[in-house]
């Protein structure tokens, strides 16, 4: 591969689920990592990152908040590659409105891209996007196109019927520590919360990709966006990450996180899934290519909710998947992630491995009983 593993790279949101796994892999490969988190006094998050192999000599931590996006400049300076993984969320006790979250996500991307250009050291910005930004829903929101691919963009005026309880839980997982408090939400948050995440991911990804348009002599920055499916598998965190719990929500019969699956199926037609190992390998693949830019979908499987339930019933028969968590009889929609594969990327984890590893993670951390 083209890249020197001694290169300096930056990971925003380095203490999150995907961020911490990515930092671990980058350190294992010999890279020097500048990781950002919001609070350097958070001993749990700092301790977790500092315990990683190679961290003592090749990990530097920076404090940076998307609501003060200039703070990322210090972490970016001197790096060759920047992974923008962090995303602003509704948090417990957060004073930010949905509108502010969307605006912060977009201006965060803009500010980080500008810092990359100013640094004169950054070659490529890799943005962790979501498949929720690539819905195959038609503009009226009632019909699905036959296939999900990189040409789809989620309509900005989409209204969801699922996702309220899910987003309440979502906000807990994004609070500023490993301990959560239930945030206050009003019925009006129903549309706002669900839309805020999807719209913020859609518009932030478009903003990132706009830096690939008309690259002049002074704008040599390449931008890759990786629109990832629901991420499952193991974790370094001391709790089950939200997306992993969503993945096995049918097994534990938890309506709040099951709504996450329903939201995915409503927006995407099926539930695109990807393993944490493949997600991080895909990020590193996009960095190690000598040259790469553009939008890439990243998911290895695309079952319907019912197909997931059937898998669990057949393979985890000691647990009951209650009827109300089985999902409807639907024909899934085709998910075309061949663009990344044509670049040379190979997925190593299929639906079985993604679901099995998520269940094992849930068992290990006590979210799924061992009966
Ligand atoms: N997990 C999935 O299924 C999935 C799928 C597709 C895309 N993604 C994308 O992947 C990224 C990481 O998600 P995740 O699942 O790893 O979630 P996560 O564990 O909750 O991580 C979220 C990260 O965002 C950071 N963050 C939140 N608000 C911030 C702010 N105001 N300023 C700076 N940083 C802030 C957090 O930093 P602190 O640690 O400092 O709080 C944390 O590192 C997100 O962009 C998400 O949209 C995730």
From TrEMBL:
Enumerate the PANTHER family for this protein.
Answer: ANTHOCYANIDIN REDUCTASE, NAD DEPENDENT EPIMERASE/DEHYDRATASE
SUPFAM superfamilies associated with the record:
NAD(P)-binding Rossmann-fold domains (SSF51735)
**Gene Ontology molecular-function annotations:** oxidoreductase activity, acting on the CH-OH group of donors, NAD or NADP as acceptor
Gene3D superfamilies (UniProt xref): NAD(P)-binding Rossmann-like Domain
Which keywords appear in this protein's UniProt record, sorted alphabetically? Oxidoreductase
> Member of which family?
Belongs to the 3-beta-HSD family.
- List this protein's GO terms for biological process: steroid biosynthetic process
Protein name per UniProt:
Dihydroflavonol-4-reductase
One Pfam match: Epimerase
